[in-house]
Amino acid sequence: MLDACEQPRRRAKELGSMVVRATKALLDFLYVAQALQHSDPTLSYLETKLHHFHDNKQVFLDLQATTHFIYPKLHWLQHYPESVRQFGATDNTNTQATERLHIEYCSKSYAATNRKNVLQQMTKWVERGEKMFQLAVDMDGRKSSDTRDFRWDPLVFIDGLVQTTTKHPSSRALLMAEITEQYNATLFEHALQQLQVKLTMPALRGRAFHNYVINAQLPHLLFYPYHKIKFIHPREGKNAFDSIVAKPAATVRGQVIPARFDTAIVKTDSGGQLGKAICFLVWSDDSRIIGFRIARIKCMFEFARNTHTRFAPGADQASQLRLRRKMAYVEWYTKLLPASKDADSGLYTLQRAEDRYSRQQEVEIVDLADVFLSAHLVPVFGSTVPDDWTSDTVLDKAPSFLLNSFKERMSHYMLEYPDGGQAM
Description:
single chain, about 425 residues, 7-stranded antiparallel β-sheet, 18 strands
């Protein structure tokens, strides 16, 4: 009797898993297919993901979501890899390209004519323009001294992305206790103690480091908070590619605006294995992402003038210079490990990280420049959703999350592509 009651539940779970796998495979295909350049590994990745979709698509027939799969667009997906091999990337296969060429090849060429024998003059104008363009390309190639072979890696993609903040702080200088209360930064003092010990005694590790931290004495300090950073690419003008907000609750015209503390991808290897190349994501031999972690940004700040000199008087000159830069107080989530991937969706499952010595939330103060991009966490819902879970409280209430790799193409390349199509 119990087994008969359990069978529908098991079947429903199996169907749900197949839906997630099929959808995930198709999304992986679509995101990588949009790449501006391709290589043999990326095309192999597309073929693998398409096979994963076909292996699981039967579920849509079982659920009567469709009666067939005879769709031209779905059929065309199998021709993408070969089409890319023959004709190049698919980034310009849309109507925008033809609209742009209409301006270049029709409007401008017509304006250059004397309105007589128009077609002949327009053709001549376009032909001469293409010859001049080819000559310019050839001359630039002769001048270039860089003869290295170009091998494209889809993980190197944000070259030139610039992080910006407002010219002035977002509020007056705040005391440590005010930061703790207003920004819900309960372990802000502990993070400052960690930073002080790191700068003054960088060789300490493990239990010895923890013992020095709990006994560290902090001077009177003032901090200037910043509530928002933007990521801008020079090619895109002043439009923000991404942004991260960390601001406390406020009351505006009698209306309470809830606090907002975004999550982000943060570089953890400053100047080490990664160096200054923040556009590289590093994978270890066992498919672990190293050098980056997910964190919640609780406060972005800089030390008030002259207070940094009292913070770590025994630190070397490089450390003193670091204290003059903008920083961020972050609360860490667990590391990105292969074992933490969800079996169906292939997304990383994260929880709040715990410090192994203090048994508290793992926190740290990092350079604001190490905040890489925003991250989107989706709470892991059970059979029911608690009433107190809202968009403003879910990051505080939910015990575990899925890291959304489909926030935009850049996140997908970082988190999904290197698995070689084996995530499913």
